[in-house]
Fold these 2 entries.
Entry 1:
Amino acid sequence: MKPGSVAIVGAAETTELGTIPNTSQLELHCDAALNALQDAGLTPRDIDGVATAGESPTALAFHLGITPTWVDGTSVGGCSFMLHVRHAAAAISEGLCSTVLITHGESGKSNVGRSPFRMVSPLSQQFEAPYGPVGPPTLFTIPALRYMKTYGIREEQLAMVAVIQREWAAQNPRASYRAPISIEDVLGSRMIAYPFRMLMCCLVTDGGGALILTNAARAKQFPHKPVYILGTGESVETPMVSQMEDFTTSKAFRVSGAKAFAEAGITPRDVDHLMIYDAFAHLPLYGLEDLGFCERGAAASFIWERNTAPGGKLPLNTNGGGLSYMHSGMYGMYALQESVRQLRGTAAAQVPDARVSVAHGVGGMFAASGTVIMSNQEP
Amino acid sequence: MVPVPTPETKPFWQGTREGLLRLQRCDACAHVYFPPRPFCPRCAGRAVTWFTASGRGSLYSYVIHHRPAPGFEPPYSIAVVELEEGPRLMTNIVECPQTPEALQLDMPVEVVFRTLTDEIALPLFRPAQTAVEVNP
């Protein structure tokens, strides 16, 4: 894909976020889809490509009355939507379809209309599950102590990630948690899995979001300012966190990030606004380093010195992130939504003159990664 | 959760039942790897051989889980150990307090086996008790 040849022309989240007990998961997808279609001034009949994760693209297309000529059901965890954007951009460029709808919906908290079957791979079943992990808080967090020992990172610095993201959330009326918190509050919150305390772990909520992409040549016909795709990246590393090559850096992050920047032809210095999927407080540290915004081991100090805070030089997770905004389970869609809002100039905590935004996602427990670099300027 | 062996991992679980920690080594490139598979993940060679590992390693990283879980008494460690032979594996560190003070990264550990069923014994690790011979 040539940088800027495909654009996001529709973007919306579900009407409500948080606790949505009367809506099943598929309808969260459709609520977000209908909102995004309205945002773009389109109807389901205008869509000829669909991509989703967590539900089957078949169910989505049927339910919305779409007959697609291009389908993507890539499902590698919470960053799947970044990969969908990448695949959709390639498909549109290749002429496989013209207008793609990407949806996410998840009844993560209320658990309404959700498939009860959770796949555990036979290798994880034998070599991780017997040791008592209970979901992401006990698996995603395992590399952190090695990272902290390697770079001399203190628990206070980990806590600061959550404190600053709450500062962003305070400016966002849609954020789940908005009351200011201190380092003492974070370190005094309930221990979940040492060194991770409750306020270092993401929320569990219901919600969804949807995006509509088309060829940049027609992007200006739509009601809102187009957001051009400059570059994208993706990779996977391992389905078992215990088998990560190096616990202080994510190979999938490095490969995905480097690919996206090379494709966009820009460097981290050119970025005005950044979203890094923060399922837990250590994720922004890995993301800042693995994408090249900081030297290895320098991200915690970078955050501590308020570079990513309101008024800082690199606004990060400006919706409040998975730690304070919302986290339905596959958060990548909300990172993309915030990037679009920032580039349209409609964010709750708007970054002045934001021109280039990066949304970087993680899937599984450092298992997969996707990166999307966007701009409101036609390259 | 009791591990359900696949045909390819059966020799590993037969080993743990006999008190042996078994790994695979590539005949062609000598790479030692885990989890088990019938080919070398480094060079793709299909000629690989099971061997018995030393059972010694060091604590690479961990969390201490403080919430209830079936079959576990919190707090308990969920750890990754780096074996002397190179591979890392998830485990629990046992026979020591489940505290950050007692669980120091890079401390030497050694394998012990906990019988779960007639078929399955799980490799766990404890702080190394065997005196390590150091040349003066």
Entry 2:
Amino acid sequence: MRVFIHPVPPDSKYRIFSLPDATGEDSLSAFFEEQCSKNALMRQKAYAITALLKRLASGLIRHDKEVVREIKLKKSDPGPKIFELKRNPLRVLFFYQPEGLIVCTNGCYKDSPKTPQECIAAAVSRRDAYLGGLSERSLEYVVVEVKQDG
Amino acid sequence: MDNPISNNIFAQAEKDPGFWLEDFRLEFMEELAREMKHLNISRTELAKRIGVSPAYITKILRGDSNFTLQSMVKLAFALGSKLCIRMEPIDQGICEWKVLAADVPGPQETTLSYRGHKIEQPGTWGSLPVKTRESKLSKPLSGGEGNEPGIKHDLTEIAS
């Protein structure tokens, strides 16, 4: 499994990893680009969630239900808690790992009050795959490139 | 290890003033929330002070409101504060990382380019506008929440 590293400013408290989507590509970049390609409004929303993610990495965001909310999982769920970063109508789901890692599992567009179940299921399954890969030492780290203009 | 294939969303977003608008909005709403907490003022109380509904305050704290300069000053004033604006250069520091796959014999490295500048010599910054810092990962990461004890992330930062 590939784990994508999104470089953040040097003074950040956390570092941002993201997990692959169903096609094996970086889910965070794919989500961002998908929203940006829709229209000007969604591009702005994508910027908003990116700004939020950057501030989350800096440790400058309060954890309350308006901004960062814990997803309620089954009590039997053994893994680390999954949180969602909120900026209507977008969500980015992630979990924390030791030593200042934020691992993003996926993003979703939400047009109802509740976060779609399939989005949560994808987050849990990717989280578990990541933890499995970690214990099997089969993770491959890929630093996300900065695309050159033109 | 594969070549980097994707796009750094932060670097891409930072090229657009729309990103900085959102960043500013977030800064304001975080500042507002912090000050409300510090003064122990509820949303209802703040709403009452400026003559709006509590729902409006919630909307602001959620980042969903497009507030004007006037409403920002009003909110700050209601908390006994004044609004300060300053301009500063956009921080362009993005770290370079060296990534070591855990079970690959002999370290395989992936070196990050910084905004199109390939960094030829790992560990040196050249003239790139990148800040250096103490490495938080000078030792391998060990297990913790959600991990089996002793499992390590073999990730080492070049910057030191």
